[in-house]
Amino acid sequence: MSTSTLPAMKTNPKFVFFTDFDGTITQSDSNDYLTDTLGMGTELRKKGNQDVLFDRKSFRQSFGEMMHSVSETTPYDKCIDILLKNIKLDVGFRDFLEWSTAQNVPVVVLSSGMEPIIRALLVHLIGPLANDIQIVSNTVAPRDGKSINEVGGWEIVFHDESHFGHDKSREIRPYKALPQEERPTMFYAGDGVSDLSAAKETDLLFAKKGHDLVNYCVRENVPFEVFEDWSSILSTVQSIVAGKATVQEVVARGLEEVKSGNA
């Protein structure tokens, strides 16, 4: 695949930043919020996450059950309205996006959520800056002959046939396969079980402190840099782009944090 067919390469960047959306760009996960407050509840949701982490259930199955439980109680437009009132932007993301836009570092959202919700939240939280962000995600469709804006009238439509529902690695690998002289340095930021498919695919992984992705990376020996919010991501990426630090140095620092128990 050539650079001309990869959306993030249209400006010939030397760096591309892939990121999860829920719980990464936002302070809390919109799908978890819907599930906890309108669907099956927190206990069953967390059990499903653990089932995914320990390979007892696919993410596709677990997440599908979560969204079905919400659809059974709440129309889709009502879900969006509720989220707009309750989901907040993570600290430092706006500053990161403004810097990355100015520095030709494209940001690509790879999400296991649904595009209409993600787009509505981004426009609400950051305004016109949202137009610069490519979103690759699942979507939504009507079910049982109903409108999506009726109770029981919507269902998630997964991006692909994989057991993830959206295998994020498939979006990243064409960039990895570019000729060395064209291939950008790639970053990924995530927090949870939806990010397992992407965790090993980029040059540098940022994993949110205290969340499931950190536990997975430690268990599977996947190198990562821990972050608490986007201010630390911005600082690290700025250093790499400016040539003041290398990806290898940051990875080594991340490994030391894991060994010292600070991850």
From TrEMBL:
<dbReference type="InterPro" id="IPR036412">
    <property type="entry name" value="HAD-like_sf"/>
</dbReference>
<dbReference type="InterPro" id="IPR006384">
    <property type="entry name" value="HAD_hydro_PyrdxlP_Pase-like"/>
</dbReference>
<dbReference type="InterPro" id="IPR023214">
    <property type="entry name" value="HAD_sf"/>
</dbReference>
<dbReference type="GO" id="GO:0016791">
    <property type="term" value="F:phosphatase activity"/>
</dbReference>
<dbReference type="InterPro" id="IPR050849">
    <property type="entry name" value="HAD-like_hydrolase_phosphatase"/>
</dbReference>
<protein>
    <submittedName>
        <fullName>Putative 2-hydroxy-3-keto-5-methylthiopentenyl-1-phosphate phosphatase</fullName>
    </submittedName>
</protein>
<dbReference type="Pfam" id="PF12710">
    <property type="entry name" value="HAD"/>
</dbReference>
<keyword id="KW-0378">Hydrolase</keyword>
